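Write out the bound-state structure for iron/sulfur cluster.
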Amino acid sequence: MEKKIGCYICTGCGIGEALDVAKLEKIAAKEQKIPVVKNHAFLCGDEGINLIRQDMEADGVNALVIVGCSPRVKTESFRLGVPMMDRVDVRDKCLWVLDVPEGDKDAKGNRQMMAEDYVRIGCVRVKKMNDPKPYEASTPFSKDVLVVGGGIAGLTAALEVARTGYNCLLVEKEESLGGKVAKMHKVSPAKPPYNKLEENPLPKLMADVKGNNRIRIMNNTVVQKTVGAPGLFDVTLKGGSGTSTERVGSIIVATGYNFYDPSKLDKHLGYQETPDVITSMEFEEMAKTGKIVRKSDGKPAKRVAFSLCAGQRDTKHLEYCSGACCVYSLKQALYVIENHPDASAYLIYQEMRTPGQMEDFYRKVQSEGGIFIKGDVKQVSAAGTGLTLEVDDKLLRQNIKMDVDLLVLATGMETTVDTVDPNSASPVGSQVDELPGSVLNLQYRQGPGLPSLKNNFPDSHFICFPYETRRTGIYVAGPARRPMGIASTRTDAAGAALKAIQVVESVARGAAVHPRAGDLSFPSFREEGCTQCKRCTEECPFGAINEDAKGNPLFNPTRCRRCGTCMGACPQKIISFANYSVDMIGSMLKEMEIPEADEEKPRILVFACENDAIPALDMVGRSRLGALSPFIRIIPLRCMGSMSLVWIADAMSKGYDGILLMGCRHGDNYQCHNVRGSALAEIRLSKVSETLDRLQLESDRVKMVEVNIMDAETLPQVINNFVAQISELDPNPYKEF
Ligand code: SF4
Ligand code: SF4
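---
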């Protein structure tokens, strides 16, 4: 179908009064040769939208340039089912960020020039766009969900998946379901008034799972290997009766945690030195028998001490807090108190961490006689029929000695998931049929495990995407993802279930999941131009590209998040999207007008990431946080990772005086929505000096800054300072050519 573009300019919101709309129309119609160009005083209203619809129906308009407000507002109004569309923002990022005093002709002229440039690049963008066709696989997509792990996280996830109407395959390596919670006596409160021990929820949960005919359970089974991509995962399962392969659409890993090995704890805590020093889990199993006793002689244990943070928040052991052990120990203190009327429970803590309503539970244990000592256990010695503890009491500021029957160590949680180094560019795992200890044994060139964020936990993003891993369609729930207690685990598992469903539905439509949810485009590779440099396979943050023996990229479309990092990485420029390409952005920047050097109107190109920088810029305009220089021209990018060095060379050759790149924050506390995109852009940019040297231009002309959504208030200063710095330099000499 031939493309017919309509350009519609809204004159509402003060646009008509501020800008010469007739001139904008002329640019679209005459200069850009857009066949249908119209304006309307209220384009997002019913009448304005009907105007567009009528042209689509009667006049064959099938691609749109909508000139008006930011594409981040009025999204529903302009959701017209037209994939080839650009929204040109002359309001939020032009009118609302420029200071134009009444009667100041020069400022007015600058504003008009900015709007004209934005109309130009909007027209070019749509002219360069093709209709993205959703990816269809040669075999049908599966919407079934595999849950690995049959503990409380896996059972909850499986039930949520099934109750939402999807089939679930639940795989458990042990003979029976239940995991660690099956060994628990009672659980801490999960419902008001949050001050009573509750019965173990597991029996009911297991009965619900077993009674749900959408859930198929395979006990004594492990995943041997995982091949494929979302919608098309082929998982080889190994059980008592041999191996089988199942096709599933998405995967939830709910394999839980291992307790930190207590034999690694410091000797002074006495573990393995005396039987009366035990771990929380050992105490839990004892409590479940109904008898709390000294292990050494089987006599009732009436004085029980709990040492919290045993080997946690300690750089020699686990440097993090497991988040659940304080509440877990409070629960166990109540077991002691409720077991004997004259029993004593001592909680030796560093800080008592009882978030949310667990504060009520903490108070309950205080009111029931729990004895709280802020300090550390310094020494444990066996003393005849019990233990003597030496405790550094931080409030009394002295060492105290106490005799107890049992000491319970609250050890921390470690993930059970095998992880890979997310920053490693080379393949870190072999593709083998069976890799002992690997939860999924992914047959990805990036390795068999899941990338970790910190402390080996396969979490994905501090801020935006809980539940996610960096392998699309694979979600980790519960303490396998990060340390957490039972109540949080159940919420986490429900969240993962919804994510797992979301991805199979998106894949079936050929659409991306976040952050470009719904995007139908995906990269295509002009294979004949490939030099097998492997940059794309190494730099894809989501492991979407495998490679063959010769190093040719083997693309997995449904793993792709459409960030464009591969496009920015490819030195041959052979990777592009139907609606985003090196050529498109290059053509846009070349289309803008560059004033002559003597006009003293520098041009600064701003490449801004659509995830944080663009919303922050919108906030500058909407909240009138400050005026921006009229000499900037903003081009939004999908991710800074998609930035091609060709654009820098093109912009400098065109005569732009400076280039500012605004990407998400990266590093240890990164916020890049595509994990490594902005970090990779910075690495790429370090090579830009070669380009600038070749052009004999100063390296100060190109700068990258990290922008977080909360930086809106300081953004005008950042931009204007850069413009001022560029203005100090001579104009780019390439303007003359
Ligand atoms: S880099 Fe981004 S766009 Fe390219 S294949 Fe990977 S996820 Fe897809
Ligand atoms: S980056 Fe480009 S040239 Fe290099 S392997 Fe990938 S597609 Fe081929």
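---
The mean pLDDT is 93.
The radius of gyration is 31 Å.
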